[in-house]
Design goal:
The protein has one domain: TIM Barrel (Alpha-Beta Barrel). The protein is globular. The N and C termini lie far apart (35 Å). The chain has twelve helices and eight strands. Strands 4-3-2-1-8-7-6-5 form an eight-stranded parallel β-sheet. It is an alpha/beta fold and 284 residues long. The relative contact order is 0.16. The longest helix is centred in the first third of the chain and has 14 residues.
Length: 284
Amino acid sequence: MSRAAQNRAAQNRAAQNRVWPLPFTAPAQRRHRLCPLVMVGDPDMGATRALLDLCLSLGIDLVELCLPFPNAFTDGETLRRAHGRGLASGAGLPEALRLIADYAGRIDMILLADSSHHLRPLGLAEVCTAAAEAGAAGILPHGLPPRLTEAFHHAAQAAGLPVVGTLYAGSAPDQRQAAVARSTAFLYLVSAYGRSGGAAQPHLPGPEIAALRQITDLPVALGFGLKTRADVEAAFAAGARIAIVGSALSAAVEAGLGQPDPLAPARALLTDLTAALPAEEPVA
């Protein structure tokens, strides 16, 4: 067994020993799921909790919980403004951990943490351990330099925290194999290069998803440019098990600012998106 396979097996055993969350390879998890990106503290913690409660009311039980950070160069204007509002509210890792703990057992939370602003300053082991102890379903590192890859995955493995691996559409077969070896939660296939929210129409790499499913039993998530019910339906039709929606939800949160019902735009969006989930499967 290769070292990567040994690491995955050890991490999966650690995850299996935790009551919550279930590993993403568990039979109960092998269904089509919507995964909205929720920015911590946008525009304040009360609004974030209200948005998570809305997710629960709609049966959404998987969320990418994003820690806000400055200079988010890979994000488009909409998400950068969301980062700014989150930072202005004072949201950070302690607030995210409280959310994870409070919603544990109801929402699988994937913590998105930036390398420059969270993982390195706070410590790889410290962040991974704290996230695992709070009940996070996994962690998605952002901007992790290659020189820290091994140390990060060692810290996650030691904490029993599954890792979401990322892969760009169009990657070579050896890059797919490397991404699979680094992943213990699910694989996030980014549909196109560029800044988030910038794609006019998502690219649907069906053959690549099929190729990934030949070499791993981990779910494949598709994101980047998914904005509508039709986009989510197309992602599922292309073979993705998880559809990640980011900028569209941040835009809906922004549209509700100062309105009598701030959640109305987000409610309309998420209600429409959940309609893309196959009717024969449980939403939660």
